[in-house]
């Protein structure tokens, strides 16, 4: 008689196989941890680069020839670009005019004015898109007062150009990331012609200004407080209102100030503004060849290190609430800032409040390629906004 037998069972894994499985799991976990650590490490480094305070200038090209009122430089987009530019070398400076000749490897430009020294063949130099250096008097022949305005970190230096009198709207000029007040020189003559006073401010971590407690650039997250302090100073000196004018990160700062301290702000001018730090950091990460997970990690680390909420600096979220007129310059070849948020901000803002001027140039260089066009738009906006 047949009897039922137990079904055959699989043999238990041998001790050798169990050890191999454990080793494989450990290896996978170790690789995963290494990958996470690598991403975190690169992210930490990138977040540090984004917040580093650096005011040095690298002489990144060599003067190939000079004489007869011209200078010959290596050909690249910066030396070939039309317009007005500065050329700086150790101990010297000149203002460059149009391109007079070009080959496949060289660009020759006219020297419109030798400000200091004479360029010589073989000297290391740099194209200076701020064009001018010094102070408003030495650079542009404009009278000014060296002032300080109170801030949470102590007295901050500023240049005050008095205009036609202090009891009227003031323009408060705010330079960008790791720049200085010289960035604002290019707008000074146009502002002066309107008769409006102009206060060009230094802020934390600038040369000659108090340092931040952490010694880092916080992308406007803390620096906007100086803009608010400058507004209070302007009002104490007779300003009836203010027009905020920001370049690059300075644009992020003035937009943050506009939301926090809107009282008395009559208008805003933005030049190549950072309208969304998240998008701009994504662009800069991609330009450096960083995988998107690394850039994502860098942004999270950045927020932990500085306390900044990147979403708070996405100005598109606030465009519909805009109540003052904005003149916004963007450039079509911006290598620093993602322009898509600026364009979207202009579309989302209430109709008629944003005047958007697009220029064919690189970051904050709209004035350089077309000074007349830039200044004409600025003059029209300032006169209309200040009701001159």
UniProtKB/TrEMBL annotation:
<feature type="transmembrane region" description="Helical">
    <location>
        <begin position="24"/>
        <end position="46"/>
    </location>
</feature>
<dbReference type="InterPro" id="IPR000073">
    <property type="entry name" value="AB_hydrolase_1"/>
</dbReference>
<dbReference type="Pfam" id="PF12697">
    <property type="entry name" value="Abhydrolase_6"/>
</dbReference>
<keyword id="KW-0472">Membrane</keyword>
<dbReference type="InterPro" id="IPR029058">
    <property type="entry name" value="AB_hydrolase_fold"/>
</dbReference>
<keyword id="KW-1133">Transmembrane helix</keyword>
<feature type="domain" description="AB hydrolase-1">
    <location>
        <begin position="171"/>
        <end position="337"/>
    </location>
</feature>
<keyword id="KW-0812">Transmembrane</keyword>
<protein>
    <recommendedName>
        <fullName>AB hydrolase-1 domain-containing protein</fullName>
    </recommendedName>
</protein>
<dbReference type="GO" id="GO:0003824">
    <property type="term" value="F:catalytic activity"/>
</dbReference>
């Amino acid at each position: 008689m047949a009897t039922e037998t137990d079904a055959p069972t699989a043999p238990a894994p041998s001790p050798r196989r169990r050890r191999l499985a454990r080793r494989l799991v450990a290896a996978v976990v170790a690789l995963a941890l290494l990958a996470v650590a690598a991403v975190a490490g690169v992210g930490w480094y990138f977040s540090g680069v984004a917040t580093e305070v650096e005011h040095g200038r690298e002489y990144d090209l060599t003067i190939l020839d000079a004489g007869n009122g011209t200078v010959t430089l290596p050909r690249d987009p910066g030396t070939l670009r039309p317009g007005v530019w500065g050329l700086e070398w150790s101990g010297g400076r000149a203002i460059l005019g149009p391109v007079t000749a070009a080959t496949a490897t060289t660009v020759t430009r006219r020297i419109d004015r030798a400000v200091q020294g004479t360029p010589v063949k073989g000297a290391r130099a740099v194209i200076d898109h701020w064009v001018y250096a010094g102070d408003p008097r030495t650079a542009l022949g404009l009278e000014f007062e060296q002032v300080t305005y109170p801030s949470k970190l102590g007295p901050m230096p500023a240049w005050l150009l008095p205009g036609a009198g202090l009891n009227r709207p003031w323009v408060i000029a705010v330079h960008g990331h790791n720049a200085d007040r010289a960035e604002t020189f290019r707008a000074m003559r146009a502002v002066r012609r309107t008769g409006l006073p102009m206060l060009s401010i230094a802020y934390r971590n600038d040369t000659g200004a108090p340092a931040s407690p952490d010694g880092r650039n916080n992308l406007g997250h803390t620096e906007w407080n100086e803009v608010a302090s400058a507004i209070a100073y302007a009002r104490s000196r007779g300003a009836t209102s203010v027009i905020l004018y920001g370049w690059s990160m300075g644009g992020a700062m003035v937009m943050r100030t506009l939301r926090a301290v809107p009282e008395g702000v009559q208008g805003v001018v933005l030049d190549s503004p950072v309208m969304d730090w998240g998008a701009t950091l994504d662009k800069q990460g991609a330009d450096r060849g960083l995988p998107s997970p690394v850039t994502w990690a860098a942004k999270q680390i950045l927020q932990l290190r500085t306390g900044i909420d990147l979403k708070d600096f996405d100005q598109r979220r606030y465009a519909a609430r805009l109540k003052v007129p904005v003149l916004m310059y963007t450039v079509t070849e911006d290598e620093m800032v993602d322009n898509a948020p600026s364009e979207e901000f202009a579309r989302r803002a209430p109709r008629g409040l944003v005047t958007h001027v697009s220029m064919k140039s690189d970051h904050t260089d709209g004035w350089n390629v077309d000074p007349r066009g830039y200044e004409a738009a600025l003059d029209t906006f300032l006169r209309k906004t200040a009701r001159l």
